[in-house]
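Why do we bother with holo predictions? Because pocket geometry can differ from the apo form. Keep that in mind while you read this record for copper (II) ion.
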Amino acid sequence: MIRLILSICLLAVHFAGHAHGFRVGELRIDHPYATPSRPGVQTGAVYFRSLDNRGRTADRLLSASTPVAERVEIHQMHMDGDIMRMRAVPDLELPARTAVQMRHHTPNGHHLMLLNLKVPLNDGDRFPLTLHFEKAGSYTVQVWVQTPRDADHQHQH
Ligand SMILES: [Cu+2]
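The structure, written out:
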């Protein structure tokens, strides 16, 4: 019974229309999406509209995993002169009462990098992604594959 209640809470998808979201304890994971992969390219990127910690204590995203890729890295954008680049970071701090930006290529923003894709990601696909949080534990979200409106950037490393 407890387990049933728990799964109903965790599965609460409370966004209508073209967005979806998940709650894990005090964390709100708003609209996880991935850009379609390009032919011959073995990497993909997952963004969230936001990752919001509404609790009074900080948490941390430690890692992530998905059946569609061999490995997932946490990446952060940074400016290198005039060029926006990305680097892998060991984890992502989620301060109390703070929404972390994980939108498409915001300066200093984060995203999750999918390395060695096992299948191509096509517009309209959905795939599971398991997030491992230090305090909130592990939680699986559904990622929507879609082309963002400002998709004129190339994803470069
Ligand atoms: Cu990246």
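The chain has one domain: 2-145.
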